[in-house]
Specification:
Two copies of one chain form a homodimer. By secondary structure, the first copy, chain A, is an alpha/beta fold. The first copy, chain A, is built from ten helices and 13 strands.
């Protein structure tokens, strides 16, 4: 096996590979978008040409995800980490709004978190940090399950029998939060956690956004940063059910730019949005629709790529998955070799074949092959060839 | 006069014109940055190639602005509007940190705002909205001057005799805030407001960033969104003196992503920064250094462009500047015609000559020619030709 071409295989976890046809289109019209004689970056966000781009992007997202009309699509900034705060502040505000109207502004509000990896762990920690500052209702942050606390490490999604969901008939539950795909630990929910239908469900889908169909009506909020499956870093897409939107002056005092209703009321243009990033998301959505057969098409492709890799890992004596089979990520395939030295050798050999960004996150080590929507199956096949060859040389 | 070429003259206030050579360089390397075989958008923010881009961008900014070593350069998201909250939260935290150590956690803290246009007005309003939620020290938001309240409209910078600066020997002043250039009203400070040297001075320079040399040591914080003079929308540059950085758990509870110390400690990579926007800023800085003679060179060019326009306006019987001569913006030249109908006709005629985005902000009307760094003097000359010709046809 050899890679004599300059073709680079980008297994980065994000910012990640962008479809080549998307990059080429953006390159072609980089200095002149739609005959304006200007770069898309030079257009006022309030101009007609940019307005058309924004609208088309929203329309295509709504079409792809089958988003009902009582939802708003927001383009925000600051990544998922900013949303950790925004989700808490906005959804607690919503619950406070309800309770104030009932004269229950002193009663406890609970927020429920599934902690299944590094990102949901950061999300719950942000809620815990912000909770004591909330005025009137006291806030309790509840971990429905904390896999690391319970099992010593992340790597599984325990069954419902182990969940400690707060009972909404006995408590005021503002929301239940989970991270659908844990990018660092390679753990993906194989199902939508079943919660009481009166409780708003929130999902961070940053690293598996648009990788497969989801049923939006199950959610109060679905959100994700763009830099894995949707485009460049710098824009976060928030799909929020309109009944979650409350006036910025109700509930926890929050920066205007983190307020969902302000963003919704201003069509994501309370101030200048990240126009170029939104444009790139738009191109990526068109690619998904026109070249990949939408979410059903891309799901099939993603399943096929992931299946091949996990089959190899499970048959191997060298590679080992640290994740339980039922909840292995289709986007971030993490695996270990017997020693760190072998892992270094594996990575060095991969680099020589132009397979880049395969190193596991610095907090966990090991190998991580991120195989997002834009990753062609051919590139996964090349990685598999290399893995087989490497194992032959190093069989334990 | 005629414009038969396809050359477009972009007088937009932001997102605004980007130097053509910057766009062309970015276009050329759009699919392969520095021989990586990847787009800059596809690089991990923690990769060596992106690290080099980030470092060079910081180095060039430090060089251009002569930023002392006890300052941090932060790349944040959410535009100036997010900074309206961040400035307040971080600098109040700093003052609280001082006062707690002195056992003065119950004493009042004052924040001073110059209100000289729409943006500083929004900034002070955000401070007023956030202030009541601050725990321990009560916060008073003081308007040093509110030009609209005092004179019925924005359009001047009153002399120091009219300022109501809080006396830092009698009060705990967290900071003094001003907006150096008011994009909408076309008002620019012709000087740095003189404040007691013990009081942190904060300037929003979003729309005149790097348009002329400034003396950074006068400031505790200088910040601006990139989308006028520095690149595309989606990144905000914050230059902050390190003694302003306090632990995120001290002072007002604030979202982690709005915390200056978190950003500084993590080299703007607590989470994924807007890598492409940072790269574009980097290219723009190189252009400033290599093609425009740095800040002294660009200042000269900017002065020349603005002087021509204001001379024409002052000599004209048709055009009228609503801004006092001593504080007219070098970046956003606003003017009025006798009637709104004539303004419409002026704009329509300009469009025909490919002079775009000349319409004044929807909140004030009129005409606004934004002539940022990237605007060539030739384009300003063309606008002037058109203005002269238009006046001939419509002399009152």
């Amino acid at each position: 096996m050899s890679n004599t071409s300059n073709h680079v295989l980008n297994f980065g976890a994000g910012p990640a590979k962008i479809p080549e046809s998307v990059l080429k289109k953006a390159q072609k019209e980089f200095l002149d978008i739609n005959g304006t004689g200007m770069s898309v970056m030079e257009l006022s966000h309030r101009s007609k040409p940019f307005g058309a781009i924004l609208q088309k992007t929203k329309d295509n997202l709504a079409k792809l995800m089958d988003i009902p009309s009582d939802y708003s699509i927001l383009f925000m900034q600051g990544g998922a980490t900013t949303q950790f705060a925004a989700i808490f502040l906005n959804l607690v505000a919503k619950k406070q709004d309800e309770l104030i109207k009932l004269g229950k502004e002193k009663e406890e509000i609970v927020v429920d978190y599934f902690v299944t990896g590094a990102w949901s762990n950061k999300a719950v920690q942000e809620a815990e940090r912000l909770a004591p500052a909330v005025q009137s209702n006291p806030i309790r942050v509840n971990r429905v399950i904390d896999v690391k606390q319970k099992y010593g490490k992340f790597g599984t999604i325990p069954p419902p029998s182990e969940w400690n969901l707060t009972d909404p008939t006995k408590h005021h539950v503002a929301y239940v939060y989970y991270c659908d795909n844990e990018t660092i630990h390679g753990v993906e929910f194989p199902f939508v956690p079943k919660v009481n239908e009166t409780v708003p469900l929130v999902a961070d889908v940053s690293s598996n956004f648009l990788s497969r169909p989801i049923h939006v009506p199950k959610y109060a909020v679905v959100y994700g940063g763009a830099q894995k499956n949707l485009g460049p870093a710098g824009v976060t897409i928030v799909v929020v059910r309109n009944d979650m939107l409350v006036d910025v002056n109700v509930g926890p005092v929050r920066p205007l730019m983190l307020d969902f209703k302000t963003a919704a009321d201003n069509n994501s243009m309370y101030n200048t949005p990240p126009t170029f990033a939104i444009y790139m998301v738009g191109l990526t959505l068109e690619w998904l629709i026109e070249e990949k057969g939408g979410l059903k098409g891309i799901e099939q492709a993603n399943n096929s790529k992931a299946r091949k890799l996990y089959e190899l890992i499970d048959q191997s004596k060298l590679y080992k998955s640290p994740v339980d089979p039922h909840c292995r990520s289709h986007m971030n395939v993490v695996f270990r070799l017997p020693t760190e030295d072998l892992e270094k050798e594996f990575l060095a050999g991969a680099e020589k074949l132009h397979m880049h960004q395969l190193k596991g996150h610095r907090s966990v080590g090991g190998i991580r092959a991120s195989i997002y929507n834009a990753m062609p199956e051919d590139d996964v096949d090349r990685l598999i060839e290399y893995m087989i060859e490497f194992e032959k040389k190093h069989s334990p």
